[in-house]
Amino acid sequence: MADDLTLGIDFGTSAVKVVALAADGTVAAQASRPYATYKPAADRAEQEPQDWWDALCAATHEMMAALDPACVVAAGLSGQLNGVVLVDANGVVLGRSHIWLDQRCARETAELRQFHADALAVTSSPISPIAVLPKLQWLKRHEPERIAAASRVFQVKDYILWRLTGALATDANEASATSLMDLGRRAWDDRLVELAGIDAAQLCPILPASRMAGRVTPAAASQTGLPVGLGVAPGAGDTGALGVGCGAFATGTVAVTLGTAGHVVASVPNRPQGIAPGLWRMAHVAPDRELWLGLIPAGGLSIAWLRRIGRGFGGRDLDFSDLERLAQDVPPGSDGAVFLPFLEGAGTPWNDPARLAGYGGLSVAHEAGHLVRAVYEGVAFNVRACLERFEQEGVVLDRVHLAEGGAQSPLWCQIIADALGRDVHVVAERDTSAIGAAILARAATGTDDLDSVIARSVRIARVHRPDPAARDAIQASLALFARQAGAF
């Protein structure tokens, strides 16, 4: 029918976002709910799986109240990668999830890098504390009773799929981030699973992203308000879904998203096994291509941090309009002030969780606006470093799409265009991973092919072009950033 809707459900680092996407690619309704991240120590980041479920139920009840349930034909999922959820044989969750931001497994990561590089070669990506493999090793070493009691090992969205439908399924994009999957075969690797201290039967089967995995059970429908029997596709990890939702599916388009983390993704035809240092090679949502990821762990988080710092001076968190107002009169290059956005370690191209953030080049002449603009520019320079790393590997980048929270700032968008020296096309819809999940759900219905749905659904709100007048100052600031980051 012309007015049928597919739902996209995305579990981000800080909130669940739900969108209803019409057949013509427009958004009919949307809702979101936040949940907490617990930081019991500086290197730890945990979330409660029940919090995800409660947030989902609240968001879907709000959304379904605005929709005709008969028009909702399918749902697709997306979620933050590498959140470990252990569940026992009775379906009881065994403690909080160690999410992707958790860095406590640095020792295990170093040991894997030193002693098991040959086994890890099949992943075609560098090992990182972000991944599931070292997280499971940490649990085996420090909390063996949890591993021993686990019947299932889920990731975030796959746990939600199981709660919604009872089905056990993941997708290749999600699985490829874990450091447990052979990228070439798109299958769990026996040696890596053994290193994790688990059995392959505890992991979810890897299914196509746009194939129905299960249907909403009566019990789940009563809690969420979703229709009983609604088909649910496994969708993709947030990188694969945002690639779809931003149009980084065809070769040549690179998507930059600035949520909690900054993701820079591009579609690449499948390549032979091998690591591209500083980048993560992942499966895309189609079997004939990969999704290459450049990561800025504290992309949007750098701005959230700056807002929170303002509380100590003004008694409240600064909002985005405060930041824009402070920075708008500061010239390009921030008069020599430079910020390294490594608040959660450095991702691409450094892959160094221990590298620290900081300001440089400061003097008594600098004011609050300089500090704000320097953060905007520091993240933009890290985006440029990601694109340059892609191009060093021969990845074709013809067009830049920008989306999510950071794209709501016209100033930041212009700074990114100036830093890249490229036109930046801002995607109209903010929640691109949720949009991507809804697109995958529509493809799963079999009524439309994925390319056509993407073409209808990815819309450009505006274009920012590099300002020639800013070029010299930006280049000088970039050189300062490069020297301080020690990576160019």
TrEMBL record:
InterPro entries: ATPase_NBD (IPR043129), Carb_kinase_FGGY (IPR000577), Carb_kinase_FGGY_CS (IPR018483), FGGY_C (IPR018485), FGGY_Carb_Kinase (IPR050406), FGGY_N (IPR018484). Its EC number is 2.7.1.17. Residues 255-444 form the Carbohydrate kinase FGGY C-terminal domain. Residues 6-241 form the Carbohydrate kinase FGGY N-terminal domain. It comes from the Bacteria. Keywords: Kinase, Transferase. Belongs to the FGGY kinase family. This is Xylulokinase. One of its GO terms (molecular function) is D-xylulokinase activity. Pfam families: FGGY_C, FGGY_N. It comes from Mesorhizobium marinum. PANTHER family: SUGAR KINASE, XYLULOSE KINASE. It is an enzyme of class 2 (transferase).
